[in-house]
Design goal:
By secondary structure, the protein is mostly helical. Helix content is about 50%, strand content about 5%. The strands form 2 sheets. Strands 3-4-5 form a 3-stranded antiparallel β-sheet, with no helix packed on it. Strands 1-2 form a two-stranded antiparallel sheet. β3 and β4 form a beta hairpin.
Length: about 220
């Protein structure tokens, strides 16, 4: 039996309830205006309710089309700003958004991923690493939480979503605000001590070319 909620439907429901964005508003930012799909750019088809519902909002994992989506770097920043602007209390809006997308929204998305036998540990590990990072601005942390949520919701592919967030950290934040320094704490491997071709990247561990959840070392 197919679960009632998909990663994409959970994402759009959250954006509607918490972010106060209609499905159309969210799709306007998320969908590409440059590629052609069904004779039109996906962004130009958001008024087609059948397309928006079946192909985007309720798309099943394995039936998503990554090429339909715009640059997540830009859309995530735009949607983060819009969600913050839609919160009722401007004084606490940024903190509310940050807390939501590393808390309730993240836990809910992990549950949906598990329902489809997708690896929710990659999502949890990425949230943990973003939380531990030392940013010059907390607004960058907020964008990363939202970006991770959006990319997993749209693509239903945790490994690819985490890779997109990592590229943003590497190419955008490192360029604009300096190197992101990670504090992984005691008991975790770093790249200098890893064995078997393991490399600890900014947000996840790569072992033999495959993404793995962060591995805790045995206590000494």
């Amino acid at each position: 039996m197919i679960p009632l909620e998909t990663p994409s439907s959970f994402m759009f429901t959250d954006l509607r309830k918490f972010g106060k964005l209609t499905n159309r508003d969210a799709a306007q930012e998320l969908l590409s205006a440059t590629v052609t799909y069904g004779g039109k750019a996906p962004r130009m088809r958001i008024n087609d309710r059948t397309f928006l519902s079946r192909q985007i909002v309720h798309a099943l994992p394995g039936q998503t089309h990554p090429e339909l989506f715009a640059d997540f770097f830009q859309s995530s920043q735009t949607l983060t700003s819009r969600i913050i602007a839609n919160r009722p209390n401007p004084a606490t809006a940024r903190e509310e958004v940050r807390a939501h997308y590393c808390g309730d929204a993240a836990l809910g998305m992990q549950r949906v991923l598990r329902d489809f036998d997708l690896d929710d540990t990659l999502y949890a590990n990425a949230i943990s690493r973003i939380s531990a990072a030392k940013f010059r601005s907390e607004s960058d942390r907020t964008v990363l939480y939202v970006m991770l949520f959006l990319t997993i919701g749209c693509l239903a592919d945790p490994q690819r979503a985490v890779s997109i967030v990592e590229r943003f950290v590497e190419y955008k934040l490192a360029m604009d605000i300096g190197t992101v320094e990670m504090d992984v704490g005691a008991g975790y491997e770093d790249g200098a001590t890893a064995e078997h071709d393991e490399v600890l990247l900014g947000l996840l561990r790569i072992s033999g070319g495959k993404a793995r959840a962060r591995r805790q070392l045995p206590s000494r």
